[in-house]
Target: Isocitrate/isopropylmalate dehydrogenase family protein
Amino acid sequence: MPRVAVIPGDGIGLEVMREAVRVLEAVESRFSPGCELVHWDLGADRFLRDGITITDEEFASLSNDHDAILLGALGDPRVPGNQHARDILLGLRFRLDLYVNYRPAVLLDPALSPLKAPGDIRLDIFRENTEGVYVNLGGTFKEGTDRETAIQEDLNTFTGVERICRAAFEHAVKRGRSRVTLVDKANAMPAAGRLWRRVFALVASDFPDIDTDAMYVDAMAMDLVRRPTRYEVIVTGNLFGDILSDLAAELVGGLGAAASANVHPGRHALFEPVHGSAPDIAGQGVANPLGAIASAALMLDHLGHAEAAQAVEEAVVAAVDGGVRTADMGGDRSTEQVGTWIADRVLSG
Amino acid sequence: MPRVAVIPGDGIGLEVMREAVRVLEAVESRFSPGCELVHWDLGADRFLRDGITITDEEFASLSNDHDAILLGALGDPRVPGNQHARDILLGLRFRLDLYVNYRPAVLLDPALSPLKAPGDIRLDIFRENTEGVYVNLGGTFKEGTDRETAIQEDLNTFTGVERICRAAFEHAVKRGRSRVTLVDKANAMPAAGRLWRRVFALVASDFPDIDTDAMYVDAMAMDLVRRPTRYEVIVTGNLFGDILSDLAAELVGGLGAAASANVHPGRHALFEPVHGSAPDIAGQGVANPLGAIASAALMLDHLGHAEAAQAVEEAVVAAVDGGVRTADMGGDRSTEQVGTWIADRVLSG
Ligand SMILES: CC(C)[C@H](C(=O)O)[C@@H](O)C(=O)O
Ligand SMILES: CC(C)[C@H](C(=O)O)[C@@H](O)C(=O)O
Model:
C-alpha cells in the first residue's frame, strides 16, 4: 500500500494537482495499485498564517511515512523572495538527499516546438540535485558597502558525481539509449571539470556498450537549439541542469508539459512539474495540467506500477494528438477539461 | 596613429583574420583612419615549438604599445586542454582588466534563425568579464581519490558589478534602447544575487529613463527561445553571459557571424569573433569571416572611426542580403570570396 504525500502548494499548483489526483483516481479504479493519497497543506497561505515553512517533524514524516511525494508548485508574490518555496523545495531535495533530478524532454508534436526543424527530440536530462552552487556555501564581506564581495561556492564531491553519472548510465541501458553526454565548463572551472571528467570516465568504463561524449555548457546551450536530436542522455551538475532542462522543455513546447522526478534510488522520491506557481494565470482554470499528470506517471513507474504509468503516458500523448490542449499548447480547453479527458481515457483504456 | 595588434591565432582564426585585415586595408584606403596593423604570432605552433604561451613582456607590450587587439581564434587539438588558448585569451581579459564583454546578437535575415517566428531580434549582451567563476579560485581536496572534493568559487565585487551595470546602462542610453534586463540566479545563489540586485538598482537609479527588469538564468534561457524580441540589453555575470551569448548567437544564425568586444573603457580593448578555432573545418577555406569582420567594425567604432565602422557593418549586411554567404549561412562562397566582396563594397561605398 504505497502512501503518497500530495502537496498542491500555491497558485496553479492547486489547479494542476487536482487533475493529477483525478488521473490517479482513474488509475486506482483501473489498475488498483492501492495508492493512498495524503493531502499536505504546505505553501504560502500556511507560511503567511503561521510563519512556518516546513517543520522538522514534517520532514521526518514525509521521509519516513511516505513512499513518494507529488508536488504541484510553490511560489507566491505575497512572500518576499519566495522564501517558503526555497525552504520547502530545496529543503526536500537536500534533506531527503534526492540526488537524481530526472527531466525528460520529448517532442509530442512538431507544431509545439519553436524550432523550424526540431526533428524527433527525446532528451533525458540527469541533473545532479544536491551539490554544486545549490549547497549555498559562501557569503558576503562588507555587505551593503561599496567594498561588498560576495562568494558563492560550487562544491562537488566524488560521491555526488559518481552516483548521478551512474544513474544516467543505468537509465541509458534500461531505456536502450546509446549515448550519454557530459556537460560541464571544464575550460573555465578546472577543479570541478577534472572531478566530473575523471568520474564520468570511471563510471562509463562500467558501461562499455554506451557511447560517451563531453560538451561545454555554452556550446551545449547552442547545440540544443541547433541539433537537439543529436543528444540522448545528458548528465550535468545542478546549475547547468537547471538551465539546460528549462531550455530543453521550451524546445519541446514549453514548461506546461514538462515533468520531473527528484529521486534517491531505493529511498525517497519527489515528483513535480517543472513549471512554477504562475501567479499571473492562477485561478483562471487555464493552466496546463500535463506536467503534473506526467509527473504522476513518473511516480507510478517509480512505485513499480509500470503498466499504469504507461497508460497515463499514452493518455497524455492521445490528448495532445487529439487537440485536447490548454492555451499554452495552442488549444482552447480548460485545465479541468484536459484532466477529465485524460482520466476518462485511462479508465476506458 | 592607432596601433592594432593582430593575433590570428590557430585554425580558422588564420583564415578569418586574413579577411578582416583585407577589410581594414579597404577601410584604410577609403577613410584613412591611419591604423597600423602589427602582426602577432601567438598560438599553438609557437607553444608547441617553444613551450611559451605568452610572456610578461608580451602582455606589457600589448597593454602599453597598442590601442586595440584583434584576435582570430585560439585552440588546437595538439595542445592538451587547449592550455595556451586559456592562458592567452583569459590572460588578456584578466590582466588587461577587460571587464566589459559586449556581445551583440542581431538577426540579419529571418531565414538564418532556427526559430519559426524569430521576429526582429536585436540583443545586446553585457557579460561581466573579469570575475565570477572565471577567477579560478578554489581547488581540490584529495584529488584522484574516492573522497575528492572540488570547490570552485564564484566571486563578485561591488566594483565589478557596478562597472558592468554602468556600461550596460550607458550603452542603452547611447543606442536609444529602452530597457536593461539583469540575469542572475538569486533564488539559488543568494549571496551573489543580493549583490547584483542591489548594485543593479543603484546604477539604474542614475538612469531614470531606462526601464529595468530581472530574470533568473533558467527562465531567461527559455524565454530567449520563446520571445527573444522582448529583450534589448542584458547584463549578467561571466558564466551566465558565456552561456546566454552563445545561445543568442545561435538564435540569429550561429556563431559564424557573432562578434564581440572585450573592453576596459578608456584603457584597453580586444575584439574577437565569438567562434573558436574550429579544427574540423580549418584549412578548407569555408570558415565564415563575418564574425571577425564585424569584430573589426566594433574595433573601428571603439577607436573613434564611427563612419568607417558603419561602412563595414553596412557591407556585412549587404553581403548577407545579397546571398554572399559561406556554407554555415546556407551559401556557397569561400571565406576569401566573402572577405573580398565586403572589402570591395567598403572601397566603393
Ligand atoms: C525554484 C528554483 C530554486 C528551482 C531550481 O533552481 O532548482 C527551479 O528553477 C527548478 O528548476 O526546480
Ligand atoms: C574558451 C572559453 C574559456 C571562453 C569562455 O568561456 O569565456 C569562450 O567560451 C568564450 O565565450 O569566449
